[in-house]
Amino acid sequence: MYSFYREIHPPTGVDHCVKCNFYSHAEKNLVVACSSYLRVYRLTEVAGSSESSAGSAGHCKLQELAEYQLYGNVESMDSVELVDSYRDALLLAFSSAKLSIVEYDPATEELQTISLHYFEEDELRVCNHFIMICMCSV
Q1: Is the pLDDT higher at 14 or at 96?
Q2: How far, in Å, CA of 50 to CA of 54, rounded?
Q3: Sequence-ordered list of residues with C-beta below 8 angstroms from that of 56, at least 6 positions apart, any chain
Q4: Under 8 Å between Cβ of 76 and 62
Q5: Residue 138 confidence (pLDDT)
Q6: Dist. CA 61–CA 89, nearest whole Å
Q7: I want to staple 119 with a disulfide (CB 3.0 to 4.6 A). Which of 32, 42, 112, 124 is the partner?
Q8: What is the largest CA-CA distance in the chain?
Q9: What is the SS3 assignment for 59-119?
Q10: Model confidence over 28-42: pLDDT tens digits?
Q11: For the whole model, what pTM was predicted?
């Protein structure tokens, strides 16, 4: 017996987001995880936002740059700055105890997997979400 899954409508709710230098250190990006999709936005400061009252955050405009489909739902996400890298990488945790580090590849304009980890022991599978929370809070 075979089963299959077909997505009728792409997800619209946001599960996780992180502000990082995803494309380069010259621009700030907002990376949003929506179920099995990653959406990347450029953060552009709106003119006159520096005149905002003290203590309030400046206003930014979002411009969607890319959307990447993943093979699984993102359970947790954070950005990491790797040594000798021109951009930030993403640390993504998936169900079934999978953890991967991905980075944008300007040559192919796609995500490139830098490191992929799979925790086989049952104790680590249960603690995968806890491990990811601890890693992201550092």
Answers
A1: 14
A2: 10
A3: none
A4: no
A5: 47
A6: 23
A7: 124
A8: 63
A9: CEEEEEEEEEECCCCEEEEEEECCCCCCCCEEEEEECCCEEEEEEEECCCCEEEEEEEEEC
A10: 999 999 888 999 999
A11: 0.74
